[in-house]
Amino acid sequence: MLPATSSYVPYYRVSTARQGQSGLGLEAQRAAVAAFVADPAQLLGEFVEIESGKRNQRPQLLAAIDAARAAGATLLIAKLDRLSRNAGFIFALRDSGVAFVCCDMPDANTLTVGLFAVIAQHEREMISKRTIDALTAKKARGAVLGTPANMTPAAIAKSLNIRQENARINQQNQQAARLAGLLHAQGHKLQQIALELNEGGYRTRRGKLFFPMSVQRLLQRHGIK
């Protein structure tokens, strides 16, 4: 159920100063907000944060919350993952007394928001732990970590981009599997689960929409029956 409101305070977040200057990511968020709100007059300014998703120091978000509270407006976010991957932060926002809604999940309730936040945080922590454990085991076998030929700035940057992309894809796939498993346990059909995943912005490992067969493969791949 959408909050009963006649005005919104948009909040946008980009991860780097370069994105903030170029509009990369920001324009897509503004487009989502414009499509969500029928009348531009309902938008009360905007607040733009340039910050890493792993950090919770968000002065612009706090300012947006204060502005929404003062105006009796609803805080409007383009995508849920633009808030934070920290569950405690999501819950603190939920309990702030300010109504908020995400364009990509307009019907989400506090339980749904909390569920997504917990899954996102858990997956981020597990990816970090698996990486550390793998490096520790490799070092214990006597392997020398790092290759001099691969330590040029260009090689390091390329490797970092690849690791970040693989981690992102793996994290999203793990999150999709967990959500699909929860919905499956609640008795949802494969078609219903596919619809929920697609509406939540999830995609298959090849970047495609989910269909009943791909949901079934996802459940089987993660050992969910």
From TrEMBL:
<keyword id="KW-0233">DNA recombination</keyword>
<dbReference type="InterPro" id="IPR050639">
    <property type="entry name" value="SSR_resolvase"/>
</dbReference>
<feature type="domain" description="Resolvase/invertase-type recombinase catalytic">
    <location>
        <begin position="8"/>
        <end position="144"/>
    </location>
</feature>
<keyword id="KW-0238">DNA-binding</keyword>
<protein>
    <submittedName>
        <fullName>Recombinase family protein</fullName>
    </submittedName>
</protein>
<dbReference type="Pfam" id="PF00239">
    <property type="entry name" value="Resolvase"/>
</dbReference>
<dbReference type="InterPro" id="IPR006119">
    <property type="entry name" value="Resolv_N"/>
</dbReference>
<dbReference type="InterPro" id="IPR036162">
    <property type="entry name" value="Resolvase-like_N_sf"/>
</dbReference>
